[in-house]
Amino acid sequence: MIETALQGIEVSLRFLVKGGMLMIPIVLGSLIALALIIERLWYYRRARCDVHALQAQLSPLVKSKRVDEAIALCDRYRGVLPRILKVVLQNSQRPADEIEKLVSAAGTQEIRKLSQYMRALGFIGQIEPLLGFLGTVTGMISTFKTIADLSGHVNPRLLAGGIWEALITTVAGLIVAIPVVVMYHYFESIIEHFAFQMKHYSLEIIDLLKYDRV
Questions:
Q1: Can you give the residue range of the structural domain that contains 137?
Q2: H runs (alpha helix) in 19-155
Q3: Residue 91 and residue 55: Cα distance in Å, rounded?
Q4: Per residue in 77-94, pLDDT tens?
Q5: Is 130 exposed, middle or buried (0-12, 13-18, 19+ CB in 10 A)?
Q6: What is the full DSSP assignment across 76-114?
Q7: pLDDT mean over 21-30
Q8: Comparing C-alpha atoms, which of 110, 101, 100 is closest to residue 43?
């Protein structure tokens, strides 16, 4: 088992070496992307909360005007939504339009935190295939230069070997880019979901506060 794994690693290293110098930024980009993906997954997990449980406990407190208890409840929950709802409750005596502005400002800060590193992840997803293609082009140039130096008298096997080695960087770039782009769009959907939750549930609490004033 261990011997098979070591052989697999050895083969992978040979492919990396045959890919040339441009394999260095491709591999480096893959490592950075992996670190960013792991960090974002961890952050989004901590940013979540049991929304339905929170709302089920919070609504009765707001309806009965027990705002301090509602704030304490938000403090007991971890995540983005409790922080936004706490802003609503802490400013419950203000007019509704002012509360909405404060929530919008707080929500913008939360979205900025949720979107951290997304630009870097998107950049890696875009640049990796280009680096791979560049490596293939430079490899093909080197191959055809070899053919020219030999005045066209070249073994087809040598030509085929040079071409497949040149294509390694394109394959490597795509192998890195495809999962990175998938995760980028997945994270975008998560951010949109958080944004919807913040807007929807904060407006619900604001409406309850309005109702209590009538």
A1: 2-213
A2: 23-47, 51-63, 67-76, 80-90, 96-114, 118-149
A3: 18
A4: 989 999 999 999 999 888
A5: exposed
A6: HS-SHHHHHHHHHHHTTTS-HHHHHHHHHHHHHHHHHHH
A7: 89
A8: 110
CA dihedral 123, 127, 129, 133 (to 10 degrees): 170
| Tokens (6 digits) for 212 | 């209590």
Amino acid at 90: Q
Pull the structure tokens for residue 186.
């997945």
Q: CA-CA distance, 187 to 190, in Å (whole number)? A: 5
Structure token digits, residue 88: 């609503």
Counting the structural domains of the chain, the total is 1
Q: Are 61 and 70 in contact (CB under 8 A)?
A: yes
Banded model confidence at residue 209, pLDDT cuts 50, 70, 90: confident
Owner of token pair 């502005």: 101
